[in-house]
Amino acid sequence: MSSILTNNGAMVALNTLKSINSDLSKVQDTISTGKSVNSAKDDASVWAISKVMEADVKGFKGISDSLSLAESSLAVAAGASETVTDLLTDIKGKIVAAQEENVDRDKIQSDIKALSDQIKSVTGAAQFNGLNFLEGSDSVEVLSSLDRASDGTVSVSNIAIDRQDLTASKGTFGSGTSLNANATPSDTAVASAGNSANVTIATDADMSDNTISIDIAGTVLSFAAGDLAGDQDAAAATITSAINALGIEGVTAAVNGGTANQIDITSTRAFEDVSLSATGATASATEIAERAETIDFSASASVNDGDGYRVTIGSSSYSYVAGKGETMEDVAKGLKAAIDGGSVDGVSTSVTQDATTGQWTLKVDNDGSGSASLGLGVTGAAGGEASGGLFGLDTIDVSSKDGAKAALGNIDTLIANSVDAAAAFGSAQGRLETQSDFIGKLSSALKAGIGSLVDADMEETSARLQALQVQQQLGVQSLSMANQAPQSILSLFR
């Protein structure tokens, strides 16, 4: 049946053309945007995933900027610490030169002062955007990553970079928990008198047949039969003279005033024990202890940031406050630098470690040129402000022989601290570079993932565009033919 009111063919052709036009519009949008999923209506789930990933990419861009800023700051700090190391090495050269007798120590001291001032200038200027890694001890947190869990929650990761204080700050002694138990002095006073042991000659009215050998500090003094004459007292006097004639540094002998057959041997060596043994006579000890008094630091106690120790010598006190990550070694060496810098007449120091227990010991000696005896004490307290890594730099003084000798031991500690700081900065730089490289690769991977989700396949889209354009032309022709079909009914009325 034919109808002029209802054209089914035209309706079908029209619906088909509408569908083709709709598909063609989508293809044209895809071509113009380059995306197959351009909005939530295109594919809600894919669009949501892509937007979350795009937000992460934006976040990683900020992280990359943060890492770049930290790298720049570290580059400045590393360069400064290396410069400080070079300047300290120059100072050591000056200190070595000051060990000679025939040099102008005052001029050398002026050079050291100029180099020290330059070091302070370097550490003060070593900042980037206001951040100075060479001052203070607080860590700096650098944003390094965004971590998205499987449930969608996001957390941030940071890289902690420790400051390396290369200032000469004295720090501030605290008033917190007592640390007195961690440091034990051997005596309450440091005196100039040496330590003694004795050798006793056995009673014998005729010593001519006796053989006696005495070993003092590795030097052997031997008496064969016939070398000694008289009784034991006369032999003691002969041996005493022979010991003194050896000229062993810091060692003297004298016949005991109350017991004539006893030889008192005294050592004034500051930081060295003197071995003693005898054959044919009796030695009271196997060694004569060093003159210096000792302060033993605990081999088991931990050292926390702000732990301070103070040594009192006579009426003066000398303090060192430990910083983050330091040990009893740093405490002992810091106190040595403090005491040496105080230039107490006749007082010298040394630091040693027991090879068996690992215990660190500060030794304090008094040669008596200032005072025959000085009080000695040590206290400790937590809660202070740490001394700088170059503590003692300000007090280096080579204008005297004793000062030059003390400075030679302390400068190596300062150089070691600056070298450690430069090494720490180098390690941190390497970590930041690795993280920055990883963030760059991760961002690229995320961008590629987003592209695989929403980007259009342009080859396929191009082919589909051509196909739809052909379909559109055919649809138009089909609709035209369907619209012409009712005209055939007119022929029935002719």
TrEMBL record:
Sequence ranges assigned to domain Flagellin N-terminal in this UniProt record: 4-137
Superkingdom field: Bacteria
Record's keyword annotation contains Secreted: yes
Gene3D superfamilies for this protein: f41 fragment of flagellin, N-terminal domain (1.20.1330.10)
Localization (cell): Secreted; Bacterial flagellum
Record's keyword annotation contains Secreted: yes
Keywords annotated in UniProt: Bacterial flagellum, Cell projection, Cilium, Flagellum, Secreted
InterPro entries: Flagellin (IPR001492), Flagellin_C (IPR046358), Flagellin_N (IPR001029)
Domain Flagellin C-terminal, residue spans: 409-493
Family recorded in the similarity comment: Belongs to the bacterial flagellin family.
Role played: Flagellin is the subunit protein which polymerizes to form the filaments of bacterial flagella.
Annotated protein name in UniProt: Flagellin
